[in-house]
Design a protein that fits this description.
Elements: H1 2-11, H2 16-41, H3 49-70, H4 72-77, H5 79-99, E1 106-108, E2 114-119, E3 123-125, H6 127-149, H7 157-179, H8 184-200, H9 205-228, H10 230-236, H11 241-251, H12 262-273, H13 296-329, H14 334-357, H15 375-421
Antiparallel strand pairs: 1-2, 2-3
Helix pairs in contact: 1-15, 2-3, 2-13, 3-15, 5-6, 6-7, 6-8, 6-14, 6-15, 7-8, 8-14, 9-10, 12-13, 13-14, 13-15, 14-15
């Protein structure tokens, strides 16, 4: 019991908990402020949606405490079990989507997306949100095990290629299943945080620059094709037209305001209407879809103005910084790669959500972590937050042990020096 209490006593020195509480508080207020807008699309939406979000977060906090008590090492031992457990529902969704075979509890959205299970008495659950946990645990283990086997000075092209093959073998199957739902947003999140973990793994820079340059060329070429030769993508590459329509709305939101660009154009108008201090709680001055989920940042801008958006962005930045600080404390250990992966998830999702809301990036349906409404997202990120806290505790212990070691070494060296070189008068 004393060991558990000591763990939580260490956490009192980490401001990340305060940052998270403030971010969640902003989310609760913003969700409640978005209810009048959300009810336009969802008339049966209950007025206490903010309370439901608080319940999800509270359940997640309880699970996060369990994660801290269990510790990262024991969870690492279960990594493949967690990975395999969430692969099963993903396979079920894929079978239902592609082969139209009835799978119990599968829920199909009105736009044809198949990403959820409807659990009686509980609600919907999105397996892809929890699959991210399994992937980050498995990839971190692959990198750590590889680095222990091949220290930095023994790295070659062959060993680096071996690492990449092992990582891709673990990442591509779930990423493919999620992309086919279709859910390009979470697929991009997975690919981004895995790329960041590979970047931090110690792989040689020339490979990173080569692959990064290749990806940049492909993305640029794709965007050019969408704008100039969309027929090539739809007819030759067989890409669904509705996916490309998001780019049309991104390129010219106000010119396509009656169709593809409506959501972005209305979101921009909402943010612009907020000015410095906003229009007030539940102002509902401008209507736009998905106000309580994808476009929650537009609600903050409309109702609480520039001040509200800046506070949100700053708190998210401070929260991310503390995760990187935890990764630094655990440098060279498994926990470090876990924290880097979690940072990658959050950072990409924050940039993509805020960027698509203000028109810098195309709309992908990515939510703002801890702020947007969503049971699966809130619960999964609270579990990941528990991993960060557990890693912070381990990092403090590692740092303490290193300091003790250096202090003992310095003491022994100093004592030996005095004994050999300093003579005292009798």
């Amino acid at each position: 019991m004393r060991t558990i209490l000591n763990k939580f006593r260490i956490l009192l020195y980490n401001p990340i908990i305060v940052y998270l509480i403030l971010i969640i508080g902003i989310g609760i207020v913003a969700i409640q402020s978005a209810i009048p807008l959300a009810k336009i699309n969802y008339p049966n939406l209950p007025a206490n949606y903010a309370t439901k979000q608080l319940m999800f977060v509270s359940l997640g906090a309880f699970v996060a405490i369990l994660v801290v008590i269990i510790g990262v090492d024991r969870i690492r031992a279960l990594r493949w079990w967690i990975y395999g457990f969430w692969m099963i529902p993903l396979l079920g969704l894929f079978i239902y989507k592609k082969f139209h075979i009835p799978i119990p509890l599968v829920k199909e959205a009105t736009n044809g997306a198949v990403s959820w299970y409807n659990l009686p008495g509980i609600g919907t659950i999105q397996p892809s949100e929890f699959m991210k946990i399994g992937i980050v645990l498995v990839v971190a283990d692959i990198i750590q095990t590889h680095n222990e086997r091949y220290p930095h000075l023994t790295r070659t092209f062959k060993t680096d290629l071996h690492l990449l093959v092992k990582i891709m073998a673990a990442v591509l199957p779930p990423a493919f299943l999620i992309f086919e739902q279709p859910d390009s947003g979470i697929t991009m999140i997975i690919l981004f945080f895995v790329a960041l973990m590979i970047f931090a793994s110690g792989i040689q820079w020339r490979y990173i620059l080569t692959v990064g340059g290749f990806v940049a060329v492909i993305v640029t070429l794709f965007i050019l094709l969408v704008g100039v030769f969309p027929e090539f993508l739809t007819e030759t590459l067989k890409i669904d037209l509705y996916k490309l329509s998001r780019f049309s709305g991104w390129f010219d939101p106000f010119g396509t305001m009656g169709n593809e660009g409506m959501q972005l154009a209305k979101g921009l108008l909402a943010i612009g209407s907020g000015n410095l201090i906003g229009n007030g709680f539940q102002s509902s001055l401008v209507y736009f879809p998905e106000a309580h989920t994808d476009f929650i940042f537009a609600v903050i801008g409309m109702d609480f103005g520039l001040i509200g958006t800046l506070i949100t962005v700053i708190l998210c930045g401070l929260f991310d910084y503390e995760i990187l600080n935890t990764a630094t404390l655990n440098r060279g250990h498994y926990n470090s790669y876990v924290c880097i992966g979690i940072f990658g998830m959050l950072f990409f999702q924050q940039i993509e959500n805020i960027g698509m809301t203000i028109g810098l990036l195309p709309i992908t349906g990515v939510t703002l972590p801890f702020v947007s409404y969503g049971g699966s997202s809130s619960l999964s990120y609270m579990i990941l937050f528990g991993l960060v806290l557990a890693s912070y505790i381990e990092g403090i212990k590692i740092k303490h042990n290193e300091v003790d070691y250096h202090e003992r070494t310095l003491y022994l060296k100093t004592k030996a020096y005095i004994k050999d070189n300093v003579k005292f008068d009798d």
